[in-house]
Design brief:
Blueprint lengths: L55 E9 L3 H13 L7 E5 L15 E2 L6 H15 L1 H5 L37 E5 L2 H16 L5 E4 L1 H7 L10 E5 L4 E2 L2 H14 L3 E14 L7 E11 L7 E13 L5 H8 L18 E12 L10 E3 L6 E4 L29 E5 L33 H19 L8 E13 L6 E4 L6 E5 L9 H13 L15 H9 L28
Parallel strand pairs: 1-2, 1-10, 2-8, 4-12, 10-17
Antiparallel strand pairs: 3-7, 4-6, 5-6, 8-9, 9-10, 11-14, 11-15, 12-13, 13-14, 16-17
């Protein structure tokens, strides 16, 4: 079956798979599909026998990154193995998740994408979030503490039984607005794609319909709006991570605090450039208070790169013998994903107390804003002159608190330099990443872009606001097309990459984790959603065709034009 784009290479190593979407059952498995490219499954099967040395361990699957994608991969893989997580090890370097991209995000989930596969991933993810209590907690014996007391990773939050919404999901929708004819046509085109994929709760709305439903919204310059009545909104990222970890621990998944520093590899006799990782050397923190570190070696069958914004550095480390290695050959196909800084500002608007705004995207600036949890929502009301009458009190009094953000201008959207040792080619001198926005961020983003856009979109309300908090996190930014990568690496053939989602990794983590687990469990074959569109071959096809003149290492933008992209996905929350 040919991919949706009709552009996938058709060599003997690059085959497409049959698409079979199985609805809402998280663990249904479909008919057999064709093999993955670069299949790494000529490796030894996992043995549960323990190694003799306390510094040598065995892991069937070693997952680097304990955020939502890494935890979701471990969760789904253990479920596919009959609730047996033995042999699955998750390595996370930030035990507190204080600097995790997910916990510093706006926590949005939407179905309004331009690719069918992204829409389908959102459908699975929203169903998973709605069923979080059932999937993560309902079979619990609350009298038992499942957390291993020897674990150095932060213990999962304890949720009350039958919370019914443990991830604090709020389905108040996304609202996209078009103010140009080009934007209107693209919105109609995307709407058709979304409906064909089954997202039938997305509605196109005229300016008059928008004004009726959202009396606070300025619509004189708007040609069309697209609003998700259900299946879109936001949730608490921390609660999702802790719920997944909680369930993983119940199933026997092991979590350790640490990070990889090198690997031991062997070359495959059948291919010149292919290697298999046999051992991963992990620097573990074995005492949360003293931060004492110990080096351990894990014998592995597969490695999953779920390191988010750190995925490029992790992949490079996996290709090295150790932290001081100067002998290893650099990867010919590095992953084109870089960490990018994104700021969020929390503000209060006294005039807006009592109603909730969906996550609204301004059409010309890309500024987004939404209410925080616990407010109420505007409803249709024929009395346009009495806006107060349009406020529904169905969920209690609103707080008038909002979140807002925007991507920096292209000339200021720099790659964060984690190594601190090289120039990041950015106009700013701020190469050290901090979770606190700088004074320059406040001026160039909030005062110059965000606040004017807020006032333009709701002039009766957002003229008087007060910033109460702000923070920043990182996007794992795919410089090619802002779409994810779910595939094995062509050189490190037993390394599965689940990276590059560019702002929608959190919301797609249930679906991407299931997809990764399927590739690991079913011999490199997708079983539910055909996500072969997100293959790695699309990023290196030009090198397959002609290696001459193509740089071995992309510079964060220089080689973009030589990589044929997918449909561009707008990199917002």
């Amino acid at each position: 079956m040919k991919g949706a784009r009709g552009m996938a290479p058709t060599t003997q190593h690059q085959q497409q798979r049959q698409c079979l979407y199985l609805g809402h059952d998280p663990f249904s498995i479909g008919a057999a599909t064709k093999s993955r490219p670069f299949s790494p499954f000529a490796t030894a099967s996992f043995s549960s026998s323990t190694a003799a040395s306390p510094f040598t361990k065995t892991a069937n699957v070693l997952i680097v990154g304990g955020g939502p994608i890494g935890c979701s991969t471990a969760y789904h893989l253990a479920k596919m193995r009959g609730d047996d997580g033995r042999g699955i090890v998750v390595v996370e370097k930030d035990a507190t998740y204080a600097h995790a991209s997910a916990t510093l995000s706006a926590g949005g989930i939407r179905q309004q994408f331009s690719l069918k596969q992204n829409v389908q991933m959102s459908q699975y993810s929203i169903d998973f979030l709605r069923r979080a209590q059932e999937l993560l907690y309902d079979d619990e014996d609350n009298d038992k503490d499942t957390a291993d007391e020897t674990m150095t990773l932060a213990a999962p939050q304890q949720h009350q039984k039958k919370d019914n919404n443990p991830v604090q999901l709020e389905e108040h929708g996304y609202l996209f607005l078009a103010s140009t004819e080009t934007g209107r046509q693209l919105m109609v085109q995307n709407h058709e794609t979304q409906h064909r994929a089954g997202a039938t709760d997305i509605y196109l709305m005229s300016p008059s319909e928008l004004s009726e439903k959202f009396p606070w919204l300025y619509t004189d310059d708007i040609l069309l709006g697209s609003f998700g009545r259900a299946g879109e909104g936001w949730f608490d990222p921390w609660s999702l991570i802790q719920g997944l970890r909680h369930k993983c621990l119940k199933m026997g998944v092991q979590f350790v605090t640490g990070s990889p520093v090198g690997t031991t590899r062997e070359s495959r006799a059948t291919a010149r450039h292919e290697q298999i990782i046999r051992q991963v050397h992990i620097e573990e923190t074995n005492n949360a208070k003293t931060k004492a570190k110990v080096m351990k070696t894990y014998h592995v069958d597969h490695v999953v790169n779920a390191a988010g914004a750190h995925c490029r550095a992790v992949l490079n480390t996996l290709a090295m013998n150790g932290s001081n290695d100067t002998s290893s050959t650099p990867l010919e196909y590095p992953i084109p994903v870089y960490p990018r800084k994104r700021c969020i500002f929390s503000f209060h608007c006294p005039k807006a107390e009592g109603w909730i705004a969906p996550l609204t995207v301004c059409p010309t600036t890309g500024v987004y804003f939404r209410s925080t949890q616990g407010a109420t929502v505007f409803r249709s009301n024929n009395n346009k002159d009495d806006k107060a009458a349009a406020v529904s009190k169905a969920k209690g009094s609103g707080s008038g608190h909002f979140l807002a953000g925007v991507s920096p201008p292209a000339d200021q959207d720099c790659n964060v330099d984690f190594d601190y040792s090289r120039n990041n080619n950015c106009s700013s001198n701020d190469t050290l990443f901090s979770t606190t926005p700088s004074a320059q961020d406040y001026e160039t983003l909030f005062e110059d872009v965000i606040w004017p856009s807020l006032y333009e979109r709701a002039p009766d309300y957002f003229g008087e606001i007060k910033v109460q908090n702000s923070w920043c996190g990182m996007y794992e930014y795919n410089i090619l097309d802002q779409n994810g990568i779910i595939d094995f690496h062509p050189e490190l053939t037993n390394v599965l990459m689940v990276n590059g989602f560019s702002g929608h990794g959190l919301q797609h983590s249930p679906a991407s984790g299931r997809a990764a687990a399927e590739l690991l469990q079913y011999n490199g074959k997708f079983q539910s959603l055909d996500l072969s569109l997100f293959n790695f071959a699309r990023l290196c096809r030009e090198k397959h065709q002609s290696r001459a003149g193509v740089p071995a290492h992309d510079s964060g933008g220089a080689a973009q034009s030589q990589w044929p992209p997918l449909v561009f996905e707008q990199a917002i929350v």
